[in-house]
Amino acid sequence: MEVRGSVSVGGYARGGKRGEGSYGEVFSAQEETTGHARALKRVRMEKEKEGFPLTALREIALLRRLRHPHIVSLIDVAVGPRPDRVFLVFEYCDHDLASLLDSSPSPPFSEGEVKRLLLQLLDAVAFMHEQWVLHRDIKMSNLLYSHGSLKLCDLGLAREFGTPLVPYTPKVVTLWYRAPELLLGAKTYSSAIDLWACGGIMGELLLHAPILPGRNEREQLLLTYELLGSPNETIWPGYSSLPHLALFSIPHQPYNNISQRFPSLSSAGRELLNSLLTYDPDKRPSAREAIKHDYFRERPIPKCVDAMPSEPWEGTAASAAPGRRSEEPAGRSYREQAKR
Fold this sequence. Notes:
Number of domains: 2
Low-confidence stretches: 314-332, 336-340
Oligomer: single chain
Strand order of the largest sheet: 1-5-6-4-3-2
């Protein structure tokens, strides 16, 4: 489906607000001419002294390029009666995975269903990387879910990359899914940061809890070392010269504890998770390589899309739009409990 171009936002009956983040508010809506459900993401204009925000221009340009079954589709760019009322119009999805997991007292997906979700995510990430685009903010709340299909959304932080790599800011990716090379101030980074985030997603779906829920960068590294063991020059060449290493004083921990943390996971599953969470970014698999892993060929086999749950959790207040929200909701969720 092609983006139709700029239209009046008056053609959409706006519903309730579904989320808010750094790059705009998100509302549910109905397209009046077709009756289709849509999501409207209002572009933040308050800080723009001149012209249209560069972040929004980048996101529009990338979404026009990246047409894929598991990347949320941009339908329109809608304008309001005032210059500061500009909305990106997206396909509507029923839930986001963060809200689904928050609202479920027990693991909402079986292992076969988790495998299908992971394959869909990895397929979207592989496609982005093959188009030379980094997502840079893969997290649960940026994964939409509707009728068995996962959609990767929110490309506000996405950037094109190439070879040789050029420096980008390391302050990307929500903390719980941020690769160690970013935490330690690597001057350049690659598509491997998205694969680390996919490892965090895999663990969280299986465990029904975030696996590395740090409250700050030091604690994030501490939790990483506790789970995987401390890195060194042998397993991660160049580790000792990373710029921010001297900022953190973290006790040495020699053991990998993936098996203890995931006792029911098969050896193939542990192997895939360990590979995604490999310290050396050059040794992480590509998304396309991860798709071919034996874990997805052993029982339980990935659930067919048609057999995936469509409305599995009645009463959930899950967001249904491509917005960004904090990974630290107040009070009630398992995410908050996991940090205590």
